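hey so u asked for the seq, here:
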Amino acid sequence: MDFQQHGKVQELPIALQAGLWGLLGGSALVVGAAIAWFVALPPRIVAAVMAIGSGVLISAVAFDLMDEAYNQGGFDATALGFLAGAAVYTAANIYISRRGAKHRKRSGNDPDERQQHSSEGNGLAIAVGALLDGIPESVVIGVSLLGGVGVSMVTVAAVFLSNVPEGLSSAAGMRKAGRSAAYVFGVWAGIAVASGIAALIGNIALAGADPNIIAATNAIAAGAILAMLVDTMIPEAFESTHEYSGLITVAGFLAAFVLSKLGG
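ran it, structure tokens below
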């Protein structure tokens, strides 16, 4: 689905528009953190939001990123990029998880998780983990504007919905670990700004690039996002919602699918 810019938004440079859309997607981290800070949500609610976000992201990977990558670069660039994105994300995720970011998407109800959130240096690891999750998504937002017809609203919605539970669950754990409001909101606001910058840079760096490069970029992001879903979001959703997680994820997928077709 493409969003046609109107009024003053049209006057903004495309790269700046990409940055603002990326910032919007990243701002969901702050929204989630604010909800967690002021409202004690049950873990099952957090997990349900995580499941919905997973379904939306799976739809975006399948119908936006991979389809677009194939149309632009064929099987070779798409397949290589897809596997490379998953491999790079997995390696980076293993590295930061062993340094304190393993539970960055958890609600913090388990004492071991609270201890991990409070360990020295783990705040930085959690921030780096959130950035690792968000960079591929933000770059995709920037690339989606290169066609000149507007941003993909399905992609923006997917990024936003996936970031809300991350900000919510991690902020809840940080608060229980005794972190201050300034620390928690500073972390997520910084990641939101970084997401906007990543979208802006992605747009500038790939403007006028060969279609195979753009295809590979979309495929790399798709592989990284799918690996992130399986490694972090889906296990957390299943842990708290159990037998309902599949149904909730399917509902999220269907909503994104319908949105993409209505705007097609």
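The first strand starts at residue 2 and ends at 3. The chain has eight helices and two strands.
lmk if thats what u needed
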